[in-house]
Amino acid sequence: MILSTTIKTTKSARYFTLNQPTELTETIWIVLHGYGQLAETFIQEFVCLDPKTNLIVAPEGLHRFYKKGFYGDVVASWMTKEDRENDILDNIAFLDLVYSQVNHLLPNQQIKINVLGFSQGVATALRWVGNTAFKVNQLICWAGSPPPETELTPLLIRLRAITITQVFGDSDPFFNEQNQIIIISQMVAQGLNVNAISFQGKHELNQSILQRLA
Protein backbone atom coordinates (compact mmCIF):
# COMPACT_ATOMS: atom_id res chain seq x y z
CA MET A 1 0.00 0.00 0.00
CA ILE A 2 1.35 3.44 -0.96
CA LEU A 3 0.50 6.29 1.42
CA SER A 4 1.06 10.00 0.83
CA THR A 5 2.15 12.13 3.80
CA THR A 6 2.53 15.91 3.71
CA ILE A 7 4.80 17.76 6.12
CA LYS A 8 5.59 21.44 6.58
CA THR A 9 9.17 22.48 5.96
CA THR A 10 11.10 25.76 5.83
CA LYS A 11 12.09 26.91 2.35
CA SER A 12 14.13 29.92 1.31
CA ALA A 13 12.29 32.18 -1.12
CA ARG A 14 13.33 35.44 -2.73
CA TYR A 15 11.92 38.64 -4.09
CA PHE A 16 13.43 41.60 -5.90
CA THR A 17 12.75 45.31 -5.53
CA LEU A 18 13.13 48.22 -7.91
CA ASN A 19 13.56 51.78 -6.56
CA GLN A 20 14.01 52.88 -2.97
CA PRO A 21 11.19 53.15 -0.43
CA THR A 22 10.99 56.77 0.78
CA GLU A 23 8.47 59.24 2.13
CA LEU A 24 7.72 60.10 -1.52
CA THR A 25 6.58 56.58 -2.35
CA GLU A 26 2.91 56.62 -3.33
CA THR A 27 2.36 53.14 -4.75
CA ILE A 28 3.72 49.67 -4.11
CA TRP A 29 3.47 47.33 -7.08
CA ILE A 30 3.59 43.63 -6.22
CA VAL A 31 4.19 41.97 -9.58
CA LEU A 32 3.98 38.24 -10.24
CA HIS A 33 5.81 36.83 -13.24
CA GLY A 34 4.53 34.22 -15.65
CA TYR A 35 5.50 30.61 -16.25
CA GLY A 36 9.13 30.07 -17.15
CA GLN A 37 10.36 33.49 -16.04
CA LEU A 38 12.51 34.86 -13.24
CA ALA A 39 11.56 37.76 -10.99
CA GLU A 40 14.89 39.53 -11.52
CA THR A 41 14.25 39.70 -15.27
CA PHE A 42 10.52 40.38 -15.01
CA ILE A 43 10.96 43.38 -12.71
CA GLN A 44 12.96 45.19 -15.39
CA GLU A 45 9.71 45.66 -17.34
CA PHE A 46 8.68 48.26 -14.76
CA VAL A 47 11.58 50.71 -15.09
CA CYS A 48 9.16 52.89 -17.10
CA LEU A 49 7.32 53.87 -13.90
CA ASP A 50 8.34 56.98 -11.95
CA PRO A 51 11.07 55.77 -9.54
CA LYS A 52 10.28 58.50 -7.00
CA THR A 53 6.69 57.45 -6.40
CA ASN A 54 6.61 53.74 -7.32
CA LEU A 55 8.23 50.87 -5.43
CA ILE A 56 8.21 47.64 -7.45
CA VAL A 57 8.34 44.29 -5.65
CA ALA A 58 8.71 41.07 -7.63
CA PRO A 59 8.40 37.81 -5.68
CA GLU A 60 9.70 34.73 -7.44
CA GLY A 61 7.76 31.49 -7.90
CA LEU A 62 8.81 28.78 -5.48
CA HIS A 63 9.45 26.19 -8.20
CA ARG A 64 12.64 26.65 -10.25
CA PHE A 65 13.75 24.43 -13.14
CA TYR A 66 16.04 24.36 -16.17
CA LYS A 67 14.34 25.96 -19.15
CA LYS A 68 15.83 23.44 -21.61
CA GLY A 69 15.30 20.40 -19.43
CA PHE A 70 18.73 19.59 -18.00
CA TYR A 71 20.99 22.62 -18.43
CA GLY A 72 21.26 26.31 -19.27
CA ASP A 73 18.97 29.08 -18.10
CA VAL A 74 17.00 28.57 -14.91
CA VAL A 75 13.40 29.80 -14.72
CA ALA A 76 10.55 29.52 -12.24
CA SER A 77 6.84 28.80 -11.99
CA TRP A 78 4.22 29.19 -9.29
CA MET A 79 2.76 25.71 -9.30
CA THR A 80 1.70 22.69 -11.32
CA LYS A 81 -1.35 20.43 -11.15
CA GLU A 82 0.51 18.13 -8.74
CA ASP A 83 -0.30 18.73 -5.04
CA ARG A 84 -1.86 22.02 -6.11
CA GLU A 85 -3.77 22.72 -2.89
CA ASN A 86 -0.61 22.81 -0.82
CA ASP A 87 1.19 24.91 -3.44
CA ILE A 88 -1.66 27.42 -3.33
CA LEU A 89 -1.40 27.69 0.45
CA ASP A 90 2.39 28.04 0.26
CA ASN A 91 2.10 30.84 -2.32
CA ILE A 92 -0.44 32.74 -0.22
CA ALA A 93 1.76 32.47 2.89
CA PHE A 94 4.84 33.55 0.92
CA LEU A 95 3.14 36.60 -0.61
CA ASP A 96 1.68 37.62 2.75
CA LEU A 97 5.18 37.54 4.20
CA VAL A 98 6.60 39.62 1.34
CA TYR A 99 3.82 42.19 1.70
CA SER A 100 4.33 42.47 5.45
CA GLN A 101 8.10 42.87 5.16
CA VAL A 102 7.99 45.50 2.42
CA ASN A 103 5.19 47.48 4.04
CA HIS A 104 7.28 47.96 7.17
CA LEU A 105 10.00 49.67 5.13
CA LEU A 106 7.78 52.58 4.24
CA PRO A 107 7.46 55.67 6.46
CA ASN A 108 4.18 56.58 4.76
CA GLN A 109 1.65 53.83 5.40
CA GLN A 110 -1.17 55.56 3.50
CA ILE A 111 -0.07 54.28 0.13
CA LYS A 112 -1.74 52.52 -2.78
CA ILE A 113 -1.17 48.81 -3.35
CA ASN A 114 -1.28 47.51 -6.91
CA VAL A 115 -1.02 43.77 -7.54
CA LEU A 116 -0.19 42.71 -11.09
CA GLY A 117 -0.17 39.13 -12.29
CA PHE A 118 1.16 38.26 -15.73
CA SER A 119 0.18 35.05 -17.56
CA GLN A 120 0.45 32.21 -15.00
CA GLY A 121 0.89 34.88 -12.34
CA VAL A 122 -2.73 35.99 -12.87
CA ALA A 123 -4.14 32.88 -11.18
CA THR A 124 -1.68 33.22 -8.30
CA ALA A 125 -2.52 36.93 -7.92
CA LEU A 126 -6.27 36.24 -7.81
CA ARG A 127 -5.87 33.45 -5.29
CA TRP A 128 -3.71 35.60 -3.05
CA VAL A 129 -5.78 38.78 -3.25
CA GLY A 130 -8.93 36.73 -2.64
CA ASN A 131 -7.46 35.22 0.54
CA THR A 132 -5.15 37.79 2.10
CA ALA A 133 -6.20 40.07 4.93
CA PHE A 134 -3.90 42.83 3.66
CA LYS A 135 -5.12 45.89 1.77
CA VAL A 136 -5.07 45.81 -2.02
CA ASN A 137 -6.38 48.76 -4.06
CA GLN A 138 -6.08 47.50 -7.61
CA LEU A 139 -5.62 44.05 -9.13
CA ILE A 140 -4.27 43.91 -12.67
CA CYS A 141 -4.75 40.63 -14.54
CA TRP A 142 -2.48 40.74 -17.57
CA ALA A 143 -2.64 38.08 -20.29
CA GLY A 144 -4.08 35.42 -18.02
CA SER A 145 -7.33 33.89 -16.83
CA PRO A 146 -8.86 33.37 -13.37
CA PRO A 147 -8.44 29.98 -11.69
CA PRO A 148 -11.55 27.78 -11.38
CA GLU A 149 -11.91 28.34 -7.64
CA THR A 150 -12.55 32.05 -8.21
CA GLU A 151 -16.23 31.07 -8.24
CA LEU A 152 -16.07 30.15 -4.55
CA THR A 153 -18.02 32.61 -2.39
CA PRO A 154 -15.21 33.60 0.05
CA LEU A 155 -12.94 34.65 -2.80
CA LEU A 156 -15.72 36.52 -4.57
CA ILE A 157 -16.62 38.53 -1.47
CA ARG A 158 -13.05 39.78 -1.22
CA LEU A 159 -12.53 40.31 -4.95
CA ARG A 160 -15.78 42.25 -5.40
CA ALA A 161 -14.38 45.00 -3.16
CA ILE A 162 -11.34 45.55 -5.40
CA THR A 163 -10.93 47.30 -8.73
CA ILE A 164 -9.80 44.71 -11.28
CA THR A 165 -8.24 45.57 -14.62
CA GLN A 166 -7.99 42.85 -17.25
CA VAL A 167 -5.38 43.51 -19.95
CA PHE A 168 -4.87 41.57 -23.18
CA GLY A 169 -2.83 42.11 -26.31
CA ASP A 170 -4.92 42.02 -29.46
CA SER A 171 -2.54 39.45 -31.01
CA ASP A 172 -2.01 37.26 -27.95
CA PRO A 173 -1.51 33.70 -29.30
CA PHE A 174 -2.91 32.17 -26.10
CA PHE A 175 -6.08 34.29 -25.90
CA ASN A 176 -7.92 35.18 -29.08
CA GLU A 177 -10.64 37.81 -29.14
CA GLN A 178 -13.39 35.32 -28.35
CA ASN A 179 -11.47 33.91 -25.37
CA GLN A 180 -10.90 37.41 -24.04
CA ILE A 181 -14.60 38.28 -24.27
CA ILE A 182 -15.58 35.05 -22.48
CA ILE A 183 -13.10 35.63 -19.63
CA ILE A 184 -14.20 39.21 -19.04
CA SER A 185 -17.91 38.33 -19.32
CA GLN A 186 -17.57 35.56 -16.76
CA MET A 187 -15.81 37.88 -14.31
CA VAL A 188 -18.50 40.53 -14.73
CA ALA A 189 -21.22 37.88 -14.25
CA GLN A 190 -19.62 36.99 -10.92
CA GLY A 191 -20.12 40.55 -9.75
CA LEU A 192 -16.51 41.64 -10.11
CA ASN A 193 -15.67 45.27 -10.89
CA VAL A 194 -13.69 44.73 -14.10
CA ASN A 195 -12.15 47.27 -16.45
CA ALA A 196 -10.95 45.86 -19.79
CA ILE A 197 -7.95 47.21 -21.66
CA SER A 198 -6.63 46.02 -25.02
CA PHE A 199 -3.39 47.03 -26.71
CA GLN A 200 -1.59 46.26 -29.94
CA GLY A 201 0.72 43.43 -28.99
CA LYS A 202 1.15 39.76 -28.19
CA HIS A 203 1.67 37.86 -24.91
CA GLU A 204 3.73 40.61 -23.31
CA LEU A 205 3.69 43.66 -21.12
CA ASN A 206 3.28 47.11 -22.63
CA GLN A 207 5.02 50.11 -21.08
CA SER A 208 2.48 52.72 -22.20
CA ILE A 209 -0.34 50.72 -20.59
CA LEU A 210 1.70 50.32 -17.40
CA GLN A 211 2.21 54.07 -17.23
CA ARG A 212 -1.49 54.61 -17.82
CA LEU A 213 -2.37 52.25 -14.96
CA ALA A 214 0.07 54.06 -12.68
Explain what you see.
The protein has 214 residues and is an alpha/beta fold. The protein is built from six helices and nine strands. Strands 1-3-2-6-7-8-9 form a seven-stranded mixed beta sheet. It is globular. The termini are far apart.
What's the SSE blueprint?
Layout: E1 15-18, E2 27-32, H1 39-42, E3 54-59, E4 63-66, E5 74-77, H2 84-103, E6 112-118, H3 120-129, E7 138-142, H4 153-159, E8 163-169, H5 177-189, E9 193-199, H6 207-213
Parallel strand pairs: 2-3, 2-6, 6-7, 7-8, 8-9
Antiparallel strand pairs: 1-3, 4-5
What's this, in brief?
By secondary structure, the protein is of the alpha/beta class. The protein has helices at 39-42, 84-103, 120-129, 153-159, 177-189, 207-213; strands spanning 15-18, 27-32, 54-59, 63-66, 74-77, 112-118, 138-142, 163-169, 193-199.
What is the percent of helical residues? 25-40%
Secondary-structure content class: alpha/beta
Report the sheet with the most strands, covering strand number, pairing sense and barrel closure.
7 strands, mixed
How large is the radius of gyration? Answer: 17 Å
- Low-pLDDT sequence parts: none
Look at the structure and give the mean pLDDT.
91
DSSP strand count:
9
List the total number of helices.
6
- Strand line-up across the major sheet: 1-3-2-6-7-8-9
User: What gap, in angstroms, lies between the N and C termini?
Assistant: 56 Å
Summarize the helix and strand pattern as letters.
EEHEEEHEHEHEHEH
| Large-scale geometry | globular
